[in-house]
Amino acid sequence: MKDFIRTMGAVAAVAVGTGLAAVANAEPVTLGQAYALALQQSEDVRIGEEVVSQAEADITRARSTVLPQVTVRGNYTRFPEETGQFGIIQPQDSYGAEATVEQALYAGGKNKAGLRIAKQGVEVAATDVRLVREQILLRVAQVYYGVLRAQKNVEIQTRNVERLTEHRRLSELRFKVGEVTESILLRAEAELAGARAELVARQNDLAVARRELQLLTGLPDTVDVIEPPLPQLDTTALDALRTTAQQHRDDLRRSQLQERIAHDRVAFARGSLFPSVTAEGAYFRRGQEPQSPFFVGESWFVGGRVEFPLFDGGLRRAELRQAKSRLEQGRLTTVRLIEQIDLDVTRASLTLEAVTRVLESRQEQRRFAATNFEMVSKQFTFGLATNLDVLDANQALIEAERDVIAATYDRHLAILDVQRSAGMFLAEALKTLPENPT
Fold first, then answer.
1. By the 8 A CB rule, do 207 and 221 touch?
2. What pTM was estimated for this model as a whole?
3. Which domains does the chain have, with CATH numbers?
4. Which of 79, 161, 378, 404 has the maximal Cβ count within 10 Å?
5. Residue/partner pairs of 49-56 with CB below 8 Å, 24 or more apart
6. Helix, strand, coil proportions of the chain in percent (round to 5)?
7. CA angle 69–75–79, rounded 5-degree value
8. Could you tell me the sign of the dihedral formed by the alpha carbons of 114, 116, 122, 128, in that order?
9. pLDDT per position as a tens digit, 294-328
C-alpha cells in the first residue's frame, strides 16, 4: 500500500509538470491534466498520506511488544571516605553498570493480535486515501464536463446570434422592398437583442464554471478544456458489474478490513483474561575505591515473572463483550454495504441505459430541427414562410442543440458513475494522467 501511494504521488507530480507546461503555453487542458493538478492541490490527499505514515508507525509500536526489551544503565557516585573500627564504612568512589533483558513469552495472544490490528490499520488508511482520490477525481470530472457544457452552450448561442442577425438582415431587405410590415423587422430586432443578452448570460455561466475548475485545480479561469474521448466500459452486463464491484469497491474493502480488525480486537480483549509470562535476566558489574571486605563486583540473574490480575471489577469481561458487539456491528455493516453496492450498480447501469436512449432521441431531434430551420429560412427568403415560422424553427433548433449537449455529457458522466459503482473509476482515471512532461 505504501508503494502504491508513493507511485501515485510520483505519477501525479510528473503529470502536474505536464499540466503546468500546458498552462504556461496557454494550451487547452485535458481531463487527465486536470485530474493530476487536483490531486496535487488537494490537502485531503496529503492528510490521508500522513495518516498512512502514522499507521505504519503503529506497526513498529505493536511489534515492539513481542521483541526483547534491553536496558543498559550506568552510575558513578563520589562520597566522603569514611572508616570505622573494622575498616571502610563508605567508599570514596562507587561506580557500576547493568544490563537487563525482558522478553514476553505469553500474553494470551494480545501481542500478536495487536500486531495484526496495526498491519490492517495501514491497509485501512491506504484505502481511505484511495477513496479520497476517487471523490476528488469524480468532482473534477463533474466540474470539467460542466465547463465543457458551458463552452458548448456559448458556441450554440453564438450561432443563434449569427442566425438571428442574418434573419434580421433578410427582414430588413424585405421591409425595404415592401414585402413585409415594419412589425416583422421590429420582431427580428427584438429576437436578436434577446439572443445577445442570452449570450452574455451563457458567457457568465462559462466564467463561473471555469472559476469552479480553478478552485479544484489551480488552473487560470480563462483556460479552455478539451473534450475527452468517451469513457469505456469492459462490460455493461449487470451481473458482471456486480461481481466486479464486490471485488474492487474500496469502501467494501474498507468495511471488510474493519470487520477483520474487530475480530482481532476480540482476540486482544480475550487475551486479557489469561496470565502473562515474562522472562527476565540481568547482569551487574560494580566497582568501588577503596573496596570493602564484602564487596561483590559482578553478579547476574535469570528468572521469570507471571502476572494475573485476580479482580478488576469486571473490566476485562466488559471489554470482551464490547469487542464482540463491535464485531457483530462490523459484520452487519458489511452485509448492508453489499446490498447498497448492488443497488448502486443497478441504478448506475439503468441510468446509463436511459441516458443513452435519450441521447439517440435528442440527436434525431437536432437533425430534424436543423433540416426544418434550413428549409423554413429558404421559404422565408422567397415569402413562402412567415416570420413566426422562422423564429419557431430557430427556437426549436437551439433547444435541440442544447439538449444534445446536455445528453452527451450526461452520458459521459453516467459511464463514469458506472465505473465508480463497479470500483473501476479510480484505476481508469489514473490511466489518463500524462506520463511525461512536455
1. yes
2. 0.83
3. 2-431 (1.20.1600.10)
4. 404
5. 49/5, 49/9, 49/129, 51/125, 51/128, 51/129, 52/1, 52/2, 52/5, 52/122, 52/125, 52/126, 52/129, 54/125, 55/118, 55/121, 55/122, 55/124, 55/125, 56/2, 56/122
6. 70, 15, 20
7. 160
8. negative
9. 677 889 989 999 998 888 889 999 999 999 999 99
